[in-house]
Amino acid sequence: MAVRSLWAGRLRVQCLLSSTAAWESKGWQLLFSTAIQRTAGEDCRSEDPPDELGPSLAERALRIKAVKLEKEVQDLTVRYQRAVADCENIRRRTQRCVEDAKIFAL
Known about the structure:
This is GrpE like 2, mitochondrial. One of its GO terms (biological process) is protein import into mitochondrial matrix. The protein has 3 helices and no strands. The chain has helices spanning 2-25, 34-43, 57-104. It is rod-shaped, with a radius of gyration of 39 Å.
């Protein structure tokens, strides 16, 4: 069984090698050759400068981060104002309790 699979594998390799030689003799490039990969990679390059395409990814990321930070600043400002108002209410309430204690204390 193992001999058959080795023999079949050897035949496949020989078939592939002979077909590769036939393609190259006709001047056709193979689909998986590095020559095709190089030319396809060179065609993908853009000749336009990146400024004309719009903001870069870094600029977009910075703008998104700036918006998030502005929202956080607004949230913290509101929380601070509420805390200050709460402290002021507690101060007034304790002052009122002290005055009431002085009036009703005998």
